[in-house]
Amino acid sequence: MDGTLTFSEQLGLKQEMEIPDVLDLVSTSDIPNLVSLASRVIAPLGPISEFAARSPWMGLENQFFDEVARWLKDIRDVDIYPGVSLLRDAMNRGEIDPKLLDKGLQRWLDSQSLQLPRDVAERFCRAALELDDLPSVLLEAPELKNLIGKLSVIDLPIKQQHSLQTLSFRMEQQTGVKLARDLDRHVIKWCKLFLDGSHTAWSLPSREEGFYRAWHRLVQYDPALNHSQHQLLKKCPREAIDALMEALAALEISPCQIQHYLEAHLLSLPGWAGMMLWRSQQTPEEESLLIEYLAVRITLEWALIKPYLPLPEQQSEDQSLHVRLIAAWAHWGDLPLEAWSHLSASQQQAYLTLAVYFDEFLRRRIWLEAWEETYEERLKAMITSKQSISHAETPVLVQVAFCIDTRSEPFRRALEKAGPFETFGVAGFFGLPIETCKLGSSHSHASLPVMLKPQHKIKESASAFAFRQYEQRRQTVISVKHTFQIMKQNVLTSLLLPEVSGPWLSLQMLARSFFPRKAGRTFRKLRHEWLQKPSTELSLDYMDSEVGLPIGFSEEEKVYYVRQALNMMGLTKNFSPLVIICGHGSHSTNNPYAAALDCGACGGASGGFNARVLATLCNSPKVREILGNDGISIPKDTVFVAAEHITTLNELRWLYVPELSEAAQEAFDGIRGVLPKVSEHVNAEQLSRLPSLGFRFKHPKIEVQRFAEDWSEVRPEWGLARNAAFIIGTRQLTKACDLDGRVFLHSYDWQKDDNGSLLSNIIAGPATVAQWINLQYYGSTVAPYYYGSGNKVTQTVTAGVGVMQGNASDLLVGFPWQSVMKSDEEFYHAPLRLLVIIEAPEHYVERLLAHDAAFCQKVQNGWIRLAMIDPKGRWES
Amino acid sequence: MFVTTFFFSLSILALSAVVLLHPRVPLHFVRIHVGVSGLPPLIALLNLVMKSTSRIYGPWHLDPLAWLTAFFVLTIGFVVQRYSVHQLLGDRNYRQYFALLTLTTGSASVAWLSNDLRLLLACWGVTLLGLTWLIRLNRDWQVARTAAVRAGRLFALSWLILLIAITWLSMATGHWQFSLVLTKASLAQLGSWGRTGVSLLLVTAVVIPAAQFPFQRWLLDLVVAPTPISAVMHAGVVNAGGMILTRFAPVFSGDLAQIVLIVLSGFSVLLGTGTILVQVDYKRQLVGSTIAQMGFMLIQCALGAYLAAIIHAVLHGLFKSALFLQAGSAVHHNEQVAPKTTSQLWRMIGGILGLLVGIGFWFIVNGKGYDMISALLLGWSVSFAWSHLVAMGYGRIRRFAGFFVFTGMLIVFGIVLTTFYVLLHGTVPQGGIQPHLSVIILVLFILLIGSVTGAWLSRHPSSTFYAIVYLWLVRFGEPHRDSVESHPEYLQLRSTLGGETRWMEH
């Protein structure tokens, strides 16, 4: 199931990438289609203030993981298998079981039809699997060269067919003229000026006309280009599509190569291109933004490369591959160079073939799979041995629904130990497809997984008087910031600004340096006290609005969403007097990645708003009445409240507590009494994982507050790093296990899901969110410079929407180096592909795979791994 | 007594930096080291407040100005090291960062305390070297290396020019001591020709570290430096020019050198401000702002307003380091300013208030020369801040709070200026040469032309002229092509090299 394939199959697939049916001529109407096909190689990238995890390879899941890995290495020199040092570290830490590694090797050898004696092949492969490099003395030995001369007749089983690269990149490789770098530099400049969201005083002129037109108007004056380039660019067509076609024609890209050529360009700066793609999906006016981006980029490439055209033909690969293969045999297979002349041609062929197949990719793939299997084995051992026996029925006092987020797991574990509390796991948006609009804000946030579209808009409102007062206080805070900004932008006032604001800023700086925790909390408190946000109501009842989404829900919708949420949690009977709906958010200071620590299922924001909406709906008598007729009867005494789990501090913050019944009040007091202890326990666990200067913390609470408030802290918490598995099943299954904060937990009881629709909902929604988060972490760890966002310390925020490294760079995607690494030398996140474990009978899983083609494809192609536990406790993967 | 304590605390600090470098010393010694680095600024502050010394003390010249500078530089050093404890945790060069930060800020503070010109040169040289080293500490990153080399070359050039100027000065006067060189009698030996020559050399030596046109390149490329290093650079190194010119004030004559300095700095003020207008990278905006602010500081020096220049240098240093250290907060959140409603009356009050404050200031300080510019800036800023904090916006609370903030600002501004004046009065050369009126008018002309052009351009954003100015300003603020890389590829290198294991031996 995990996508093991024979190599001939894989190599065969390499050729059949989807090539659109293009005839000899491409017409303007084909271009949008080609661009949208090409955009499969990048992922949309939203602003960093609503950081939402996305799999960088979501458009490539129709290909095998291995295939994509090889292709990326070839086209962009990006390696998405873990590096050798990472794998060795994992082995040294005992996270890879050598036996499983060996087993992986045997399995591969079994799947091959070798022309060699098994023991010879095995010896060679075992030695190669040590992951050592070939010694350079050997590679440069003159005898080796002589030998190659005699052997060169042998055909190797793979053709060295290269992926299409951009001309500027090829040019840079062949001649050393740094054209690709220059092109990137120009494109970065234009993109950041166009996408600016930070309200610089002077914005890019004519940017309201669109990217291409603004660029076209300005580029003829750009002092960074020379006169002939100005002339050339001035004559470009006025429409982006025409310009793109013209540039492609001028660069002599044949019609059938266009898509691949565009892909190569998109992969040059996947971040900026991703932001253009994201914007193009937001409003219909900017629909063609990605086309415009490519038009600008390829037209600029043409202008830069024109003096150097035509490029010399690409030289075919020399004999270095043969050299490596024979050296590999000499080094790992104890086959001295002299021995080759005694071999028959077919034997030579067999030796070389094995060395070709057992290449670096395959070796690291076997390691990665062994690492994943080791984790699975241990998880399986823990879960199957520690099946908790259901306790004698002590009545449950409180039921708490948490987000599936891996950070909920330690908290749930501690909470359940602390008393008669029952917990559930469900996606943190609680199934509510809503757009939220905070009090006084004109901006609405789509508070749901990024792959879904909001259906309703929920607004916060307060009484007119309170609102006006609040709004004035809020505006004061904004206007002080704003005045500082515009005084900075004025020639005269800026010169006096240090004298005016310097004393205040230095006070703040000193306070934050001497007392990071207290200062941060004081500033937060001051702000809070000043704003005095009034208590607010939510617009839950249906109202038609002229523009945008309808506000609120109709009665049927309310019932529908509540029923769905309760079903997803598996909470349809035995309600306790108090039910807490718990979203989660984080606290960090001076952190551009703050949103990355919030709820991923709520589009990179706190899930508190959604929790409040659901709890309020659940308390509605009308809703309860209709649900009661439906078989879900909620006792009168039961009250729903909403809370927010602050993951940095491991506290619960109450967001919505209506009037409580007597029983509920008792339960509420009960849980409030144990929460400090729970927090302390979870904090201690959290602190033991975070790197520190080697002190034992006496007061975990104070220390986590320091992490949250310190403006110099680069790791306020670990977020979802080290996530590895997603368990869909009852809590009974995992209750006795310490899952180390590595597992997403979704409640699921197959007995309540006859037709499998709950399961398929979980897979399509929450599991996909988890998979994206997992792959984003994976990418940020294995290719921190390309799929991660590099070092936090040298980042600069650009255009208010993202970060760049150093002077300028691609708009960075993924997580920073510090979020996946403990230190420069030690990794924290283990790059494992997500293991989905379903607790259900076999035919449930079969039905799921048959119905959900997308999920089936992910599993088969190695983008996710699947295991199941059937009711008898049998584990199958 | 305090003087000895100060140098003692500095030696302890140096010692602890060396101890920290040793790989056997546990990493949490960093906390002790940072604690120690808080001592010297504290003692410098005591010295400054007690006015215990204003005399020559061995090779040291310990007047309040020297103590103020030492206090300021060491405070920045302390704050930045405190910041680095968590910010750089996990970096492979962790220990080296602290050692070099100590070296850079420590030697800078000593430089401004020295009476011996050779000592000053040596310490300033070490500071520049330390800074260059800090930037290239991340050796794997090619872009950082290139930028460090380019900055290092310019630093060396600046230092050599300073060396020539100082050698010339001491050859002519026969002394290496500030206190002896800068007497009237000694300077007479230099001759007017020599004075102009030395002044010109000094001007060249200071415009380079202050990143003034045409030497702005190094600062623009050093956005690659880690955030805390940038904070030190923008707070403690770029403003050295102000100190040097203040110290050498008696040599500096109001002629050619003055005009050269004013023209270069004036141009830099405009270009720097222009960079803030068009650039969208947060750190690059800060660089533009530094260029403009340093230009203004040098103009103040050129006009003989040394006290104002020192105040500006110090407050700008604190201001800029705070802004750098909070660079992570620059992500734009959707907070919109409510549509502005403003009545003519409120605006007029602002205008009148500005005028009154400007004129009032002029009378309080007994205005002459440079104060004209101060009064203009002050009056303008007052009416500007008034119109944005108080006049615009709706509601009583909003106006009242705005008014409160506005008055608070004004009062603190007054207090801070008075404090500086009291502290430094008498030690900073004041009004040595009153600048010629035409020079003042030149400065005013540059500033006003800049403002007017800016205002005109922002009203005509569709004109070709706007497009051209816009693109030139963008180009001015962009990094050099060698110091840009699309992805930080050095991180790839790190993940492919690693330790050995033998999994077969099971």
Q: What is the structural class of chain A?
A: alpha/beta
Overall tally of structural domains of chain A:
5
Number of strands of chain A: 16
Structural class assignment of chain B = mainly alpha
GO biological process, one term (chain B): ATP synthesis coupled electron transport
Pfam families (chain B): Proton_antipo_M
Main location (chain B): membrane
Membrane topology (chain B): Multi-pass membrane protein
List keywords for this structure.
heterodimer; A: 877 residues; alpha/beta; 5-stranded mixed sheet; 34 helices; 16 strands; 9% strand; disordered N terminus; B: 506 residues; mainly alpha; 3 domains; two-stranded antiparallel ribbon; 72% helix; 1% strand; globular; disordered C terminus
Explain this structure.
Chain A: It is a peripheral membrane protein. Chain A: Belongs to the inorganic carbon transporter (TC 9.A.2) DabA family. Chain A: It is found in: Cell membrane. The complex is a heterodimer of chains A (877) and B (506). With 877 residues, chain A is an alpha/beta fold. Chain A folds into five domains: 32-42 and 162-308, no CATH class; 48-161 and 320-373, no CATH class; 396-462 and 543-698, no CATH class; 464-531, no CATH class; 720-784 and 820-876. Chain A is 48% helix and 9% strand. Chain A has 34 helices and 16 strands. In chain A, the strands form four sheets. A five-stranded mixed β-sheet of chain A has the order 2-1-7-8-9, with helices on both faces. A five-stranded mixed β-sheet of chain A has the order 11-10-14-15-16, sandwiched between helices. A four-stranded mixed β-sheet of chain A has the order 4-3-5-6, with helices on one face. In chain A, helix 29 (731-734) links the parallel strand 10 (725-729) and strand 11. In chain A, helix 5 (98-111) packs across helix 19, helix 11 runs parallel beside helix 16 and helix 13 runs parallel beside helix 16 (289-305). Mean pLDDT of chain A is 89; it is low at 1-24. With 506 residues, chain B is mainly α. Chain B folds into three domains: 1-115; 116-328 and 436-480, no CATH class; 340-433, no CATH class. Helix content of chain B is 72%, strand content 1%. Chain B contains 21 helices and two strands. A two-stranded antiparallel sheet of chain B has the order 1-2. In chain B, strand 1 and strand 2 (60-62) form a beta hairpin. Mean pLDDT of chain B is 88; it is low at 497-506.
